[in-house]
Amino acid sequence: MAKREQTTGRPRRRTRSEDTSVVSPAWLDRLLGHPRTRHERDEAINTLVIRGIIGIVIVVALMIGIALFINQVVIPSQPVATVNGEAITVREFRDRVRFERARMTQQINGTVSQLQAFGFTDEQINQQFSQEPYSTWLNEVNFPDQLGQRVIDDMIEDKLIEQAAAERNITVSEEQVDQRVNDFFGYDPTEVALIGTDPTATITPTITATPFVSPTPTSIPTETPTITPTVEATLAEGETPIATMTLTSTPFPTLEPTATALPEEQRATQEALFDDNQTAFTSYIRQQANLGADAIDAFFERLALRNALEEDVVGDQTTTTYVNSRHILVETEEQAQEIIAALQAGESFSELARAASQDTGSAARGGELGWAAAENYFPEFRDAVLTLPIGEISEPVQTEAGWHIIQVRDREDREMEETEREQISAQQFAAWLEDLRAENDAEISIVSNWPDYVPR
Fold it and tell me: Membrane spanning segments where (predicted)?
């Protein structure tokens, strides 16, 4: 008979398998809270996973929130440029680029539609858009950095204008802003109101040739062009017409006469066209640039302030100095000195001009430029013809075109036409602005990474 197992009467000890943890390694066991069963372990793991997911979501949300805060609050508030301590913010810069891109796109589309209406072929339209200002419009629309560079320069100029206007206590009224709106859309309420009351025949504008030495171009905001077909003027090579746009002559069919509308109908048509143009412009800017009425209002306020400051700086000029002059244009100062020596030796000015002048247009006429407003010339050339004694041969005068030998035949003050007055005033104001920027250059700074902020 087998020997009976002895007992102590105490509870039996758990076997080794019962005493072993259900989780290993030890760090994971501690992380899960020392689960004693597989069920406890699974619940602990699920809880840990849920907490981990929640934590990741919170971290991702924080990162997205921080990124949005930086991109929509911090960066837009940073300066892209400063002018005399006043900042131009990234937000203002971006809005302006979008506005200008939409404005130019509308100008391009409108111009193409008008050219097509005048019977231009695709080839003629492409040729037209290879010329200024159309080629610049296309380049700026297609190359964001080029548009951004022009916009940042314009905004710096606008800031200088604001500061100069404030120093001169110049402000603009609602009426002045409305006038800029009317001018932009080619609407003259006074002229419209006089329809049917003024029997004077409508005067057809003509192109006036500008002398060879053309004024330096300026970056004045371009207004929406109203294109009318014009006959090409016969100009000597090197001369440019004053008209802002010159379209290639294209034969048009003879239109059958139509009944003349009553004055009331004509006025209503002009007013409706003005309203339609305004609505179309506003709608296009809002859709394409995602900007509201404030941006459009600011655009016309800038034009009004610029015009008010121009009037204050330039003054109300009604006359300008015209000069009747001739010149010989050469490439180097040494060549100019040789021409002067030949003139002093008795050689003919006209023959030397025909033989040596690089200005082939005036060279064919013996160097004659004829009568022209002095303000239409390069600044150095202008100063020379305004001060040179009548009949005297100048020392060599350097301009962007080269070296000139100049002789003034006569000089006199003349009344200016309105278009000429506006052109000369704009040139003088542009020169004043250029000097103003040069004076303030040390107080103007542009961040080096500004291209990063140009909307694409």
Answer: 48-70
CA distance 359 to 211: 11
Determine if the pTM surpasses 0.70. Answer: no
Domain-embedded: residue 298: yes
Q: How many domains does the chain contain in total? A: 3
Is 132 contained in some domain?
yes
Is 425 contained in some domain? no
Contacts of 277 (CB under 8 A, 6+ apart): 185, 187, 224
Token pair of 12 as six digits: 């039996």
Q: Which two tokens stand for residue 440?
A: 């303030």
For the four alpha carbons of 93, 95, 101 and 103, in that order, the dihedral sign comes to negative
Residue 253 resides in a domain: no
